[in-house]
Amino acid sequence: MIIAIDGPAGVGKSSAAKALAQNLHFTYIDTGAMYRAVALTAIEQHLDPKQDAAAVAQIANDLPLRFKDAGKSTFIGERDISHEIRSPEVSLFASKVAALPAVREVLVSKQRQLGRAAEKACGGAVLEGRDIQTVVFPRAEVKVFLLASPVTRAARRQQEWHEEGKKIHLDDAQTQLTERDNRDTDRAAAPMQPAEDADLIATDGLTLEQVVEKIMELVRAVQATSI
């Protein structure tokens, strides 16, 4: 089984996907971390996504990216970049990198390989990102698009950054999220949008456990029809 979870930043995709994968003993795949890793490397090499698109795509192809701790930690070779890729700077740069068709082509192929390998290894995968249910795995058995109000999302993102020692004003967090939303939804290559057959779940006012349970209901429904 492939479970595809999409949605904009701050809706709780990562937390829900990790918990869901743990409950089901599936592999968790954070596709956003892959774009962030490419973005981090491009920043360090002083590349501009618009002017150096080919070089950025080459990074995506060659980067020795790997995941550890059930997908919760991201490494480039032996370097743990799990915290570095969560900075506001990398977040904004990642959306620019993700708009490059050549980069998306490389990473989508890698994401499909990871998903299929997980199905063989443990029976399934939970992938979260922005185009999993529309592009990467359009035939996923469970497709979910998470939503939340701008204020809720900004508050969540502000809290995440504060926990990592990065201070940002709530208004600034909301502005950055809006800018990223616009880039993600307006890009020509795989714009962020729910699939026609995706289940929409608003996470405002819900605990993580409640969000996970709503997705588990969808999973159980699929499992019941396959018996």
- State the distance separating the first and last CA atoms: 13 Å
Question: Mind describing the biggest β-sheet?
Answer: 5 strands, parallel
Strand order within the widest sheet?
2-6-1-7-8
CATH topology: Rossmann fold
Order of helices and strands: EHEHHEEEHHEHEHHEH
Alpha-beta classification: alpha/beta
Helix content: 40-55%
The CATH class assignment is: Alpha Beta
Number of strands: 8
Number of domains: 1
Produce the secondary structure layout.
Elements (H helix, E strand, L loop, with lengths): L1 E5 L6 H12 L2 E4 H14 L8 H10 L2 E4 L4 E4 L2 E2 L7 H11 L2 H22 L2 E5 L2 H5 L5 E6 L2 H14 L6 H17 L12 E4 L5 H19 L1
Parallel strand pairs: 1-6, 1-7, 2-6, 7-8
Antiparallel strand pairs: 3-4, 4-5
Helix pairs in contact: 1-9, 2-3, 2-4, 3-5, 4-8, 7-8
Question: Would you give an account of this structure?
Answer:
55% of the residues lie in helices and 15% in strands. The protein is of the alpha/beta class. The strands form two sheets. Strands 2-6-1-7-8 form a five-stranded parallel β-sheet, sandwiched between helices.
Structure keywords:
227 residues, alpha/beta, Rossmann fold, five-stranded parallel beta sheet, three-stranded antiparallel beta sheet, 8 strands
In brief:
The chain is an alpha/beta fold.
